[in-house]
Each structure stands twice: as C-alpha cells, then as structure tokens.
TrEMBL record:
Gene3D superfamilies: Phosphatidylinositol (PI) phosphodiesterase. Its EC number is 3.1.4.46. Residues 28-315 form the GP-PDE domain. This is glycerophosphodiester phosphodiesterase. It comes from Brassica carinata (Ethiopian mustard).
Length: 365
C-alpha cells in the first residue's frame, strides 16, 4: 500500500508563469494525521490519546502501517528553528496558575523544555485549551519529547513521505517579508535533509501557500480549506471554489479539503479535476470507513486520518477487478473489494447514492 519514495514524481513548474503542471498521486493515498492521530484529551475514546501527536514516536508508529505520508504542523521559533507543534500557544502551569506563551515567540531551548525530555527528565507541564475554553493537562499513554523539523527528517522511517503543514495564526496579519523569512527557515531544513523522501507543503494561509510555491519548484503545494464549514473574514478560505481559484492563480498543485465540504458539494470534485488539481481530505469523518469508501468512489485521491491502524488496513484491502470479457455490460464496469472480508461491491449509481445518504446522516450529527 505504501508509496515507495521512488514511485512518486514531484517535478513541477509553471506554464506561461501562471499554470501549474498537472499533479496526481499514483494511487489512493492515506496520510496519518499528526502522525498516528491527533490527541483529543477530552475524548472518552482512549485511541485519541494513546500516543503524543506530532512526535517522533507517533510518526514512526504510523509508519509501521500501510500509509504513504504523515501530516504534521510546523512553526518557527523566535531564533529561526522550525519545530513541529499544532497549537499556536503553549499552555503550562506556574505556581498553580495556567499561563500561555506563543510558540513563535519562544527560543528553541524554551520550547523544548516542555514535556518529557530526551534525557528522561520531566520538563515543564503541558496543558491544552479546547475551542470551548476548557483546559486539560496534556496526558497520553505513550509520551514523547517535542521535536524539530530536522529531528523528523533524521529519525522518522524513510518509508513515509511528509505532508508539512505551514502553521500560522488566523488572528494575525502577516507581511510578505515575515512570511518569506519563516518559509525560508523551513525550506533550508527541508532542502538539507530531504534526500529522496516525498514532500508536500500545505497551508490554510493563502499567501503563505502561494509564496512557498514561488520560492521553490521541487515540492507540490496544496491549499488547505474547510470549504465553508467555518466562515473566515478572508473570503478566500470560505469555499472550494475559492480554493480552486487560489490554486489556479498561484500555480498550486492541489487542495486539502474538510471532508464535510466535499460531501456537501460533491459536484466540486469534478471542478477540481477540470482544473487539473489533486484533491485529498481531512476531518473526523475520515475515521469512518464508509466515508472513505465513498470518497474513493467519487474520485478523491487520498485522506488524512486519525485512526491510522483501522483505516489504513481497510484501505489496503481495496482492489479493482475489470469486467471480464463476455460478462454482461450493465453499465457497471468494475467491482471493488473493500475491507478485511473483501466484500464485492458494484461501482454503480445506486452504491454511490446509498453511501451518500449514509454520509449525509453523519453530517447532521
């Protein structure tokens, strides 16, 4: 299932300085979200807090399964070091009081002082704040030290590619020079350590995505969007059509969309394809096998998932059988076998309609 590093061709370039070369994955790809899956400390599901997200341990455990990439978030510290961390703020406790510090305002040594240390010592306590304002101590079953982007290149198994999400604060207006300096620090590490590992850049920040495309021609750049599932002041972030426009104008190679946006506007898939863009998805619904299956049938090229073991093993069992010679042509030209039991399912309008109805029920929950 996993792509070998030699099987992915990521050459790219502009045509007439405006259009991007068509980019496509050689097969349906599976990416581990923040490694082996994101941590949801408030979740009753122990799988959501089994291994510290965005850690070397998480990446390497994910790499033991039939996946193609690990996705992770990169920010740059005050002293110019790219580190892997999702949240904009680090929350800790000092003298019984919860305090917050912006990751990009820390020096590297301060950032690395949180959580378990490489020498086995116990670092500063880490907490996490949810969108609704609740704060949880960041406790997982298997913890691991915080890490830098360089650590990931050196210590993560080479069997997986990296989907490097360029992380920026939605509430800050960044100037071009500030963005350029941040991206330059990241590119220096990537260029120095990449060897032949497949790399994808992605970002919710439209200007950062377009800028890193202009700064290099070696790695594909995907625009991240929730497709209108949340509304932002920047209208470029509020629909799949806007995402297509960003990609076409900036020479980007693809879109990473919230799966809900794809299921709500499935006709957008064809518009993405017509624009010669790749399309992959993210979101908690990607932990439902039937939703993955539906996207596979609809033409989505890959998924970012939290339940790496369950989803990757289910996806690995997909195979396509062409219609045998002499077999009656009823308009359903292939059969897909999906899941451990490899149940045969006809690719038909009825099958897609059934799965779409199922997905719509999930959307309403």
């Amino acid at each position: 299932m996993a792509l070998s590093v030699s099987s992915v061709k990521f050459s790219s370039g502009f045509e007439d300085d405006k259009k991007q070369d068509a980019f496509g994955f050689p097969k349906f790809v599976v990416m581990g979200h923040r490694g082996f899956g994101m941590n949801m400390l408030q979740s009753p599901d122990e799988k959501m807090k089994s291994i510290k997200e965005n850690s070397i341990l998480s990446f390497n455990v994910a790499a033991d399964f039939p996946i193609d990439f690990v996705e992770f978030d990169v920010q740059v510290t005050r002293d110019g070091c790219p580190v892997i961390f999702h949240d904009i703020f680090m929350f800790t406790q000092e003298q019984g009081v919860i305090i917050e510090k912006r990751v990009t305002e820390m020096a590297l040594h301060e950032f690395l002082s949180y959580g378990p240390q490489k020498d086995g010592a116990i670092g500063k306590p880490m907490f996490r704040k949810t969108k609704d304002g609740r704060i949880f101590e960041w406790k997982v079953v298997k913890d691991d030290p915080l890490c830098t982007l360089q650590d990931a290149f050196v210590k993560v198994k080479r069997s997986v590619g990296f989907n490097v999400e360029l992380k920026f604060d939605d509430n800050i207006v960044y100037g071009e020079e500030e963005l350029r300096q941040t991206l330059d620090n990241i590119l220096k590490v990537v260029d120095e350590h990449v060897q032949n590992r497949p790399i994808i850049f992605s970002s919710f920040h439209p200007d950062a995505a377009r800028l890193i495309r202009n700064m290099q021609m070696s790695y594909p750049v995907f625009f991240l969007t929730n497709g209108g599932c949340e509304i932002y002041e920047d209208v470029r972030r509020n629909s799949l059509d806007e995402a297509i426009k960003i990609c076409e104008e900036g020479g980007l190679q693809g879109i990473v969309s919230q799966v809900k946006a794809i299921l709500r506007t499935p006709n957008a898939i064809q518009r993405v394809k017509d624009s010669k863009l790749s399309l992959i998805s993210y979101g908690q619904l990607n932990n439902v096998v039937e939703v993955i299956y539906l996207q596979y049938l609809m033409g989505v090229e890959g998924v970012i998932v939290d339940m790496v073991m369950e989803i990757s093993e289910a996806i690995a069992s997909i195979s396509v059988k062409n219609k045998a010679d002499g077999e009656e042509d009823d308009g359903r030209k292939s059969m897909v076998m999906f899941g451990e039991e490899r149940t045969k399912v006809k690719i038909s309008k009825d099958a897609i309609a059934f799965l779409t109805k199922f997905a719509h029920k999930l959307l309403q929950q």
